[in-house]
Design a protein that fits this description.
182 residues; mainly alpha; 2 domains; 7 helices; globular; transmembrane; Rhomboid-like_sf; endoplasmic reticulum; Derlin; membrane
Length: 182
């Protein structure tokens, strides 16, 4: 029963989120089970010259997954400014402070701050380009979704004339139909 509920929730995720989550879980399991070495997954600056890879060369990061996750957290937190958060039951704050709380926690654990700062910088750049700049006077959308992604992932429009079968209607009422009053 719990498996079915978990599967249902998993399938309710947006396609890209589901793919990213699946890739993270599979990659983590593969590394933990020694099927894949983490060194096979790292960013290799030498390949930039040989195979024209870009992004992380300028910030000297070898593993970009954490920075990507912080970027997603940053964008979510800026888009949900009024959500109240609780960190280990000790600290209450609004969502926009979440990336900074996570940065502070990373520092307490002895991690470097550069990965978090890179993620926040990229997240802020994306948030500004996607949410702030288009709303400014004379602003426009800088980032455009490629048509192939729209075709693959956009939901198909629902049929406005669709009526579910009677057994799917809650309460046994004829929702959406006129009542016969005598």
């Amino acid at each position: 029963m719990a498996y079915e509920a978990l599967w249902h929730e998993y399938m309710q995720m947006p396609v890209v989120t589901r793919a990213y989550t699946t890739a993270c879980v599979i990659t983590t399991l593969a590394v933990q089970l020694d099927l894949v070495s983490p060194f096979q997954l790292y960013f290799n600056p030498i390949l930039i010259v040989e195979q024209y890879q870009t992004f992380a060369f300028f910030v000297n990061l070898l593993f970009l997954g954490h920075a990507f996750t912080i970027m997603l957290v940053y964008v979510w937190s800026r888009r949900n400014p009024f959500v109240r958060m609780n960190f280990f039951g000790l600290l209450n704050f609004q969502a926009p402070y979440l990336p900074w709380v996570l940065l502070g926690f990373s520092v307490l654990l002895g991690n470097t701050i550069w990965v978090d700062l890179v993620g926040m910088a990229v997240g802020h750049t994306y948030y500004f380009a996607e949410d702030v700049f288009p709303r400014l006077r004379g602003g426009f959308r800088i980032l455009k979704t490629p048509q192939i992604l729209k075709t693959l992932f956009d939901a198909h429009p629902e049929d406005p004339d669709y009526m579910p079968p009677p057994e799917d209607r809650p309460g046994g009422f004829n929702w959406g139909q006129e009542a016969n009053v005598q």
